[in-house]
C-alpha cells in the first residue's frame, strides 16, 4: 500500500468512526449530510493559490514563494483547460470541519479580467469568509481600491519608505527605506503609479505600506498598501518589478510574510560566505602587455615565471589586515589552504613569514582543506593542443589521477592542520584545486572515476563544486557537492590595474582592443565600453556587489569564492565584500543579520532545500485556530521548513530561531508522522465558518471591461502591455 492509499485509509477510518458514533447517538440511524451548510471549525491548508496570467509581477512572487519553500498551487489563466474557480474549488464542508484549500491568494490585479464574473465573486466570498489575504500584483490606482493616481512613470533610483503599519505586518526585518534599482541611467527599469488615498465608503479603508514623494509636489504617495473592505484584505501593488531586481528581493519576503500571516512551510535567511582559495600558495599574475597569465597561456620565453611580479602571494601584513578586517566587519572570510605552499617556501628560503603570521592568528580564521599542493585531480593534461585534452594511457583510455594521489593530497593537508592544531577546521570538508576531479566540459563530461572512492576513504562529507557549471548539490561517494559562486575578482589579479586590464580583454570587442570573446558568445556575454583606470571602483566593484548581494537576498546558501591574490597587493576583494555588507546593513534591521555559513552549514541548507522541493507534496500542513499541524504521508522521514509567529510552541518548548521578527527552523518529521505547533495568538484566519458549494451561493457580478493599451515596464525593458484595469464598479459589486 502506498503513502497516498494509507492517507486515504486514515481519512476513511476517521469518517467511518464518526458516522458510527452518530448512529449510536441516534438509536442506530445514520445522520444525513445537512441540506444547508452549517458552521464548523475551520481547517485551512497552508497553500498559496497563484492565479497566473503570465505577467512579470506574478512570476516574481512565484519565484519568491519557491525560493522560500512556501507551498503553492498555480492556475494558468491563459489556458483554455484551466479549472473553473467554483465554490468547490476553494473549500468544502465536512462533517467535522470546514476545509479551506488556500491560506493566501496571488492575483494579477485586484479584479482579474481573465476571471469570469462568477469566479471573481466566488474569490471575494472565499477571502471574506475565511479571512484569507490576497496579493494583487499590479494595479492602476482607482477609487475602487482606495486610490487616486498622482504620477505615472519610472521610479528608478527613488527611495521609498515603509510605513509603521508595514513594519508590524510582515516587514519587521527592514529598517524602513528601500531604493528602487537604477542600474542603467538610460533605461527605465521599474514603472509605477504613485497614488494618494481616495475617498472611500461602506467601511472600506486603504493603509499605505510603501510610500515615496510624488515628483514635483513634495507630497507622499503610495506604491504598496492594503485595501480592506467587507472582511477582505488586498495588498495592492501599483509598481511593476521582476524577480531579478534588488528592490524586489528586499520587499518580496515581506509580501510573502504578509500574505501568509507569517505561517508557512518555509525557511528564509540571508546567507553570505566568501571562501579564499590558494592560501599559502603563490598565484600566477595577469600580464597586461601580453594579455595572458604568466605560467599559463603566456609565452614562457617572453614572460617567464621568475620575472618580477609574475606571481603574487600574501604577506604577513596581509594576514594582520585580514584578521583586523574580520573583527571590524563581523564576517569571516574562510581560509582554503594548501600546506605545500609553506613547505616549498621554507625549503627555498629557510622560513615563511606568511605561515608564521597565519599560525599566530589561527584562532581568527575558519580553515578549509584545499588539498596539499593544488594538483589537477581530474584527467592528466595533454597540453600539446589548444585547448588542452585529456591524456591517454597506452591502451587508449583516459589517464586519470589515481585514487592514491587524491587520497594523499587530502590526507597530507589534514595532517598539516592537525600538526598545527588549526581551530575551526572541518576535516570532512574539501575544496579541490580548480574543483578538479568533478566533471567539467568540454574535456571531462564525467567525474574522475577514482574520486568517489577516494572521498569515501578519506571520510569527506562535503566537496566544493563550481555553481556556474552545476548549480545543485549531488552525492559523490560519501560526499555531497556544495556549489560555490565564482566572483569576477580573478585569481590572477592582485592590483586594480590588472583587474581592469583583464576585464577589458574579456569584455570588449576586437575593435576596442579586447579579445572579442563577448562578440563570439553573445548569448552569455555582453561587450562593454572599455573601462578607464578608475573602472575597478566605478564599474567592477558595483557590478560584483550587485551580483553577490542578489545571491544573499535569494535565500541562497551557496558560498562565493575568490583567491589569496585578491587579499594582497591592492587587496581588491575587500571593497566588494564591504559593498555587500554596507548595502545590506543599510536596509535590513538588526533582527535579520547576515548568516555567515561554513561549508557544512551551506551544504546542509542546500540539501534540505533540494529535498523539500522534491518532496513537499508528501507533507500536508494545516492551520486550525491556534494550531499548526504537519502530517508526513510518506514512509520516510523528511525535514520540513516551518515559519511561524514569535512565541510559537512545539510541545512544552519554544519553537525555532528568531529571525526577521519571526520564528523559523527545519523540523524532522518521521514517516507517517504528525506534529502540532501551538501559535501564540489567533492567526487572523477564520476559526469557524460555513461554506455552501452550490452555484446559487455566489451572486453574479458584471463582466470585466476590456483592457486598454498602456505603456509599462517589466523591469528589464520597455514594452507595451495591458494596462491595469480601473474597475471600481466591479470591486464594489464583488465586495
Automatic annotation (TrEMBL):
Listed Low complexity bias regions: 696-712
Keyword annotations: Signal
Superkingdom of the organism of origin: Bacteria
The organism's taxonomic lineage, starting at the top: Bacteria, Bacillati, Actinomycetota, Actinomycetes, Micrococcales
Protein name per its UniProtKB record: Polysaccharide deacetylase
Signal peptide: 1-32
Positions of the UniProt region annotated as Disordered: 696-718
Amino acid at each position: 500500500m502506498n503513502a497516498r492509499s494509507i492517507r486515504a485509509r486514515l481519512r476513511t477510518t476517521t469518517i467511518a468512526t464518526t458516522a458510527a458514533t452518530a448512529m449510536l447517538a441516534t438509536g442506530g440511524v445514520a445522520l444525513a449530510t445537512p441540506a444547508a451548510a452549517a458552521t464548523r471549525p475551520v481547517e485551512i491548508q497552508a497553500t498559496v493559490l497563484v492565479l497566473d496570467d503570465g505577467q512579470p509581477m506574478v512570476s516574481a512572487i512565484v519565484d519568491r514563494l519557491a525560493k522560500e519553500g512556501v507551498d503553492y498551487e498555480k492556475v494558468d489563466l491563459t489556458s483554455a483547460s484551466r479549472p473553473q474557480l467554483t465554490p468547490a474549488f476553494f473549500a468544502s464542508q465536512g462533517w467535522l470541519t470546514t476545509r479551506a484549500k488556500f491560506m493566501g491568494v496571488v492575483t494579477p490585479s485586484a479584479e482579474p479580467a481573465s476571471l469570469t464574473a462568477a469566479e471573481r465573486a466566488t474569490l471575494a466570498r472565499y477571502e471574506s469568509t475565511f479571512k484569507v489575504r490576497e496579493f494583487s500584483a499590479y494595479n492602476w490606482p482607482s477609487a475602487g481600491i482606495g486610490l487616486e493616481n498622482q504620477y505615472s512613470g519610472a521610479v528608478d533610483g527613488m527611495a521609498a519608505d515603509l510605513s509603521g503599519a508595514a513594519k508590524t505586518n510582515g516587514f519587521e526585518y527592514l529598517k524602513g527605506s528601500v531604493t528602487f534599482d537604477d542600474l542603467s541611467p538610460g533605461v527605465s527599469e521599474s514603472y509605477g503609479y504613485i497614488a494618494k488615498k481616495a475617498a472611500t465608503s461602506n467601511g472600506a479603508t486603504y493603509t499605505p505600506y510603501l510610500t515615496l514623494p510624488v515628483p514635483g509636489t513634495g507630497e507622499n504617495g503610495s506604491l504598496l498598501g492594503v485595501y480592506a473592505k467587507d472582511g477582505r484584505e488586498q495588498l495592492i501593488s501599483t509598481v511593476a518589478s521582476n524577480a531579478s531586481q534588488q528592490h524586489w528581493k528586499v520587499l518580496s519576503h515581506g509580501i510573502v510574510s504578509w500574505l501568509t500571516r507569517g505561517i508557512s512551510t518555509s525557511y528564509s535567511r540571508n546567507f553570505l560566505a566568501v571562501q579564499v582559495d590558494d592560501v599559502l600558495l603563490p598565484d600566477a599574475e595577469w600580464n597586461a602587455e601580453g594579455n595572458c597569465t604568466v605560467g599559463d597561456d603566456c609565452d614562457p620565453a617572453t614572460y617567464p615565471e621568475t620575472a618580477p611580479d609574475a606571481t603574487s602571494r600574501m604577506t604577513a601584513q596581509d594576514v594582520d589586515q585580514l584578521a583586523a578586517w574580520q573583527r571590524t566587519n563581523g564576517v569571516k572570510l574562510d581560509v582554503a589552504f594548501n600546506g605545500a605552499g609553506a613547505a616549498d617556501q621554507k625549503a627555498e628560503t629557510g622560513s615563511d613569514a606568511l605561515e608564521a603570521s597565519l599560525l599566530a592568528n589561527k584562532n581568527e580564521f575558519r580553515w578549509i582543506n584545499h588539498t596539499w599542493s593544488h594538483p589537477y585531480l581530474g584527467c592528466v593534461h595533454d597540453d600539446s593542443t589548444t585547448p588542452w585534452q585529456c591524456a591517454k594511457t597506452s591502451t587508449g583510455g583516459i589517464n586519470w589521477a589515481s585514487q592514491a594521489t587524491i587520497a594523499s593530497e587530502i590526507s597530507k593537508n589534514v595532517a598539516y592542520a592537525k600538526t598545527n592544531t588549526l581551530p575551526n577546521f572541518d576535516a570532512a570538508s574539501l575544496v579541490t584545486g580548480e574543483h578538479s576531479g568533478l566533471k567539467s566540459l568540454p574535456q571531462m563530461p564525467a567525474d574522475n572515476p577514482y574520486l568517489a572512492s577516494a572521498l569515501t576513504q578519506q571520510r569527506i562529507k562535503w566537496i566544493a563544486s563550481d555553481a556556474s557549471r552545476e548549480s545543485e548539490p549531488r552525492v559523490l561517494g560519501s560526499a555531497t557537492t556544495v556549489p560555490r559562486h565564482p566572483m569576477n575578482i580573478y585569481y590572477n589579479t592582485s592590483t586594480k590595474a590588472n583587474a581592469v586590464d583583464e576585464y577589458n580583454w574579456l569584455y570588449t570587442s576586437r575593435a576596442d582592443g579586447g579579445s572579442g570573446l563577448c562578440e563570439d558568445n553573445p548569448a552569455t556575454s555582453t561587450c562593454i565600453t572599455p573601462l578607464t583606470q578608475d573602472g575597478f571602483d566605478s564599474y567592477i566593484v558595483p557590478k560584483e556587489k550587485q551580483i553577490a548581494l542578489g545571491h544573499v537576498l535569494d535565500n541562497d546558501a551557496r558560498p562565493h569564492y575568490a583567491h589569496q591574490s585578491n587579499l594582497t597587493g591592492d587587496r581588491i576583494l575587500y571593497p566588494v565584500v564591504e559593498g555587500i555588507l554596507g548595502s545590506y546593513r543599510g536596509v535590513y534591521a538588526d533582527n535579520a543579520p547576515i548568516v555567515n555559513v561554513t561549508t557544512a552549514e551551506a551544504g546542509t541548507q542546500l540539501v534540505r532545500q533540494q529535498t523539500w522541493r522534491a518532496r513537499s507534496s508528501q507533507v500536508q500542513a494545516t492551520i486550525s485556530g491556534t494550531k499548526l499541524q504537519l502530517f508526513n504521508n510518506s514512509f520516510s522521514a523528511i525535514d520540513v521548513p516551518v515559519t511561524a509567529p514569535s512565541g510559537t510552541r512545539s510541545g512544552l518548548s519554544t519553537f525555532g530561531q528568531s529571525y526577521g521578527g519571526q520564528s523559523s527552523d527545519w523540523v524532522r518529521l518521521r514517516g507517517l508522522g504528525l506534529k502540532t505547533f501551538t501559535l501564540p495568538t489567533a492567526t487572523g484566519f477564520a476559526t469557524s465558518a460555513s461554506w455552501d458549494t452550490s452555484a446559487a451561493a455566489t451572486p453574479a457580478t458584471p463582466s470585466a471591461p476590456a483592457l486598454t493599451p498602456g505603456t509599462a515596464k517589466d523591469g528589464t525593458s520597455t514594452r507595451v502591455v495591458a494596462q491595469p484595469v480601473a474597475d471600481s464598479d466591479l470591486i464594489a459589486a464583488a465586495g
